[in-house]
Amino acid sequence: MHFNACSFECLNLRVLRFVRFVRLGRYSDLSNQTEPFELQKGSGRKWTKERDLSQLKQCREYSIDKFEVIRIAGKHPFLWHDHWPVKNYAKIFECLELVDEIANEAMNVISRIRGIGAKARSKVDVAEEFNSDGSVDQPVPYIAVHMRIEKDWMIHCKKLEQKSNINQICSSKEEIMERVAHITGLQQPVVVYLAVADSLLEDNSILSGWKDGLVPYEKKRLGVWDIYKKYPYLIQSAIDYEVCSRADVFVGNSFSTFSSIIVLSRTQKLIGLGITSACGVGVRFASYAYNILGESRGPKMWMTDMSAPSLQSISYGTSNVSCYSNWKAR
């Protein structure tokens, strides 16, 4: 991946007057293929504020503006650093942008989901609010479920439950379906997109057993597998991230980093709309944790605690989620 050097500096220094966009792309896209600037990040879980400051001072002494490529090296560099306050880490989402190719692929998947949803709604005469020109103000809604039931996750979550003495981490397919079915305020029929790592999935029946009105689809049944299979696993995850992030309702696991980051970005969107609490309100961009029982037998409503002093809950997961972002406490 490549980063605009000045953009990276703005992320580390949090100097907003230097904010530009960081884009993920290919090395072949670069016009000036200089030697990369080697950036050591995320040495396990031992990265400190002092290392942050030392590295920033080094970047000031040796200007990184002349470099077009920054190579991030180190263990777990994707979640540096656990000691950042959540509200600072959330600023990254204001500086990140998918390259057009990946963004377009994600929008093709979303368009396919909404198209199928529109057909399902037309069959049962769901009333839409049309404008005078025949257009619709709001696109057909859909639900995205980060369905973590793959074999690698089930091994990990069971060990984590034993180690932490928490029984709210693993969820079976049946439990997920049951709780999603009890989300209140859903206008049905509605497409439920299942974001799942197909290559690690041992259960081939994830599309069966859903409540009437919930129309489940995964990549192959949706007819978009040709889009995904062109890319390596991480790019497939980036597409799924965008599809889940843009869903009208997102349901994930609060002990999954992928789910947690999606909820963080969605909470950031709600805050931008002036919404700091989704308690008892059916708002767009609502998020839920299916591994925790909420009201009316449904999943627990979930907004990121923006006042948290570190990324502990995002990095490692938590069973303490709520429908309030606690933004005012920052």
TrEMBL record:
One matching Pfam family: O-FucT
Keywords noted in UniProt: Carbohydrate metabolism, Fucose metabolism, Glycosyltransferase, Transferase
BP term (GO), one: pollen-pistil interaction
Domain of life: Eukaryota
Gene Ontology molecular function, alphabetical: glycosyltransferase activity
Annotated family: Belongs to the glycosyltransferase GT106 family.
PANTHER family from the UniProt entry: O-FUCOSYLTRANSFERASE 23 (PTHR37220)
Protein name: O-fucosyltransferase family protein
